[in-house]
Predict the 3D structure of the following.
Amino acid sequence: MELKEIQFKIAVYHSFDELNAADASLLAAARETAQFAYAPYSKFFVGAAAMLANGKTVTGTNQENASYPVGICAERVLLSSVASQYPGESVRTMAISYNNGNGESVKPISPCGICRQTLVEYEHRTKTPIRIILSGMSGEVFVIESARQLLPLSFTPDDLDI
């Protein structure tokens, strides 16, 4: 037997003010967009904003449903919008933030498993890593260089090639 360790590095900023202008602008867009989420059941309002390779910014929010948990996360709403509006365009950076109607929104959150898989698939599809910025409405900000780092043993289209 052999033990292998999988690690990745994450940049931790102590506040929004430490970010460069482009990242701060994208995170501000994600925070602003969170107010448009439809989350009457969980009261967990998530906003995502992406900077595309063509310079356009696209946003998305989580959308819940009375047939809980049939909703869709902000990250997947955003990627679906990008794929529909800008076919083949890569996402350079995505910022994700939230406003927790049941408590504080002061620590970074990370995409759920389905969103992680979708982000990795989108990276594979466009052959471009997606930088991920994670934050609440205040507090620390995490920056990860590729969505693939969030799902290191991901299932990709390459696994279907026999």
Summary: Strands lie at 11-13, 44-52, 57-61, 91-100, 131-135, 141-144.
